[in-house]
Amino acid sequence: MSPHPSFRRRGLLLGLGATFALGRARLAFAQAPGERRLVVILLRGAMDGLFVVQPYADPGLAALRAPLVLPEPGREGGLLDLGGRFGLHPRFSHLHALFTAGQASLLHAVAGPYRSRSHFEAQDLLESGNPQRLTSGWLNRALQGLPAAQQTGAGMAIGTGVPLLLRGAVPVGSYAPGEVESPAPDLMYRLAGLHQADPKLHQAFAEGMRSRGFTSQTLGAPDQDRERGSFPRLALAAGKLLAEARGPRVAALELGGWDTHVQQAGRLRGPIAALDDGLARLQEGLGEAWARTAVLVVTEFGRTARVNGNAGTDHGTAGVAFLVGGAVAGGRVLADWPGLGTEALLENRDLRPTRDLRSLAKGLLRDHLRLPAAAVARAFPDSPEVPPLGGLVHA
Amino acid sequence: MRGCMSVQGQIAAIRFGLGLRLGESPPAEPRAWLLEQLEKPAPGPEGAPIADAMAIRIAFQQARRPRDPVGDRAATQAALIDFMQAEIRAQTERRLTTGQPFRERLVDFWMNHFTVSRRDGNVSLLIGDFERRAIRPHLTGPFEAMVLAVARHPAMLFYLNNTASVGPDSPAGQRIRRGLNENLAREILELHTLSPAGGYTQGDVQELARILTGWSVNNARPPHDFQFRPAAHEPGPKRLLGQRFAEGEAGGEAALRVLARHPATARHLAVKLARHFVADTPPPAAVSALERVLRESDCDLGAASRALVQLPEAWDPPLTKFRTPSDYTLAAGRALGLTGTQGDLVRNGMGQLAQPLWTAPQPNGWPDRAAEWATPEALMRRVDWAYRLAGRFARADLAAVTEAALGPFARAETVAEMRRAGSTRDALTLLLASPEFMHR
Prior knowledge:
The complex is a heterodimer of chains A (395) and B (440).
Chain A: H1 5-8, E1 13-15, E2 37-43, H2 49-52, E3 53-54, H3 61-65, E4 80-81, E5 87-88, H4 93-100, E6 104-111, H5 119-128, H6 138-143, H7 148-151, E7 155-158, E8 173-175, H8 185-195, H9 202-211, H10 230-243, E9 250-255, H11 264-267, H12 269-286, E10 293-299, E11 319-324, E12 332-335, E13 355-356, H13 357-368, H14 373-379
Parallel strand pairs in A: 2-9, 2-10, 6-12, 6-13, 7-8, 7-9
Antiparallel strand pairs in A: 1-12, 3-5, 4-5, 6-11, 10-11
Chain B: H1 4-15, H2 30-39, H3 50-62, H4 73-97, H5 101-113, H6 127-135, H7 143-151, H8 154-159, H9 171-176, H10 183-192, H11 202-211, E1 215-217, E2 226-228, E3 238-240, E4 243-245, H12 249-261, H13 263-277, H14 284-296, H15 301-310, H16 325-336, H17 343-352, H18 370-373, H19 376-390, H20 398-405, H21 412-420, H22 424-432
Antiparallel strand pairs in B: 1-2, 3-4
Helix pairs in contact in B: 1-2, 2-15, 3-4, 4-16, 4-17, 6-7, 7-12, 10-11, 13-14, 14-15, 16-17, 16-20, 19-22, 20-22, 21-22
């Protein structure tokens, strides 16, 4: 089974923005680095890239994961088209609007340099920005490239803790509005499962879930409003903070609930809604500053190309990343598409990575935050073989 | 492989203690470890003397009295808040870090038995001192010593209004036309000693109230501690449970000693101890073993505590007692190795889970049965709290935390879900909100 011909051409750029080309000359108008905003959203648990951005034109897709394939664009409940090859999950309505407006790029078949399928290890490496774990995060090291007077207070973690991504020598703030965080539905269902063996607690636990709007304990049909609550509020708060004249310029947020080994289609509705609404609220909070913002959305790895025995997927390798914001040269799917034929899969199992996530982050540090080469190299050490990806943002 | 002793060691830590601290091994000789805590107590906590607390209390009240207020309202309030903050931090810190958690559990058991609450009577400032002087020194002594210390402590005298109780025929009663307040007397009979099963009458309540008139607090002079006021004491002998008690402070002391040694008291304490340490519906054999020890020792709490350790029923797995929010949050805090101001996470957790420290709604204290605590919303709040707490420990060593939290009691299903979890935070949430961690 060979992939569709149009997918075999490496370096193909798909989408609406026809004028885009790699290596295009950058930097027409100098802009104070202090005005540019960079937000990184970490999706913990490994989002299934093949589910949220479906390569519906790839003939291998249905064979691998028919139960997870959504109707093609234009059909009822179908994907939102991304230029004729890929389709976006229909709940990503805001993200799709940004894409159409040229403010979102979707990158497919991307992965970090590690091949760990352990969440914890992979998240550490993703945040370290290195094939071996470091004790600081790449975003903190990137802040060291700012003028000394601008470093402190430039970074802000939104949520209860400071992720490794933002830890390091430069002091960063953290902000958590009171009491807004609660676990993702998937975690609640797992806990409900653990409580089923407890004769005394299982009924009370199930009742508690019901009263909080979970419709069923076993069928994986979480209330779609449930997960929308906390993350969009955090995102709005992040946007408002970043919009302030003396506010932070770099922020990190986290969103869990992506580890869908069971009943994936139902269980991803909540996290997808949370992320999509969160992006809308972030934009709202940023206001005019949205025009100078880039938001990088990444996850630790993708998931298996094949559906598993529980209508879910297991830990895989390559997946998707999103880049959104007013500063983004968007409207494109950037994919050096490896195909889904059996021989194309990594270890006959995972989507094969064709682009290193570090090239994406490096491109943003160089072209968006305007960091000098030495600062980019400090953020992602020992990786000359991974050059920054150009042209991601407007000059 | 973990042997049977590891299970017993973990039971000692969980059921009799507050859970292991991060990195701590279960005791190799569980019974000996518990008995040594009874025999060789570590030094008690040092806290501000009651004179300090009373001075703050008096200044606070003087700044707020309607006529001729003295002092600054804001400053007196700030002093009160600072004092309480220090007391609560010290209380939590000790429980998070102690190597003698069985003793702390006993302290908490008796603190709940003799509830004084921040909800009433302006006693907040005095509760730390109440614990240090009325409860801790008597943990392994005769119960009557604890009963007497409690009945003489200003916190209890204010909380149950005995400072306002005046003998109607006493000089003060004749002068100011105030009378008996039965509150303390009734609770001593009903909650602290006999229990309703002891068969006392309303007449006994009133007689004990008369007996205890004059047991009050010296508001006028430092150290503002207990003071017997003869002028408020009801004259003449009284009859309680058919026995005659002489006029004066000595009569009250004698009456309390009789109540503390009473067979009904032994029964009452045996049931409560067995319910607390063994099961909501305590096994009759465990109750009668404790009751026998208490009766034969004139209610010696050292003997009762040692008997508790020897109860075969107290060593049975599985863990069946539902942890109160206090036990639950402390166990989580210990398993994560919290110290210092991190203790605020536990203190706040107790509040969010509806058991704020020293704030029992009524004199009968916090409930001790799962049915009262394991409600649907309470379980959801525990998940939320665990999730928020876990968010601060994204770098935690999951294996070590699991070992401290549950050791051999971590079920395979829980460990499997933790391995599948999408983040350290999720894995910690699964551990801390697992049904097995809800129990002790």
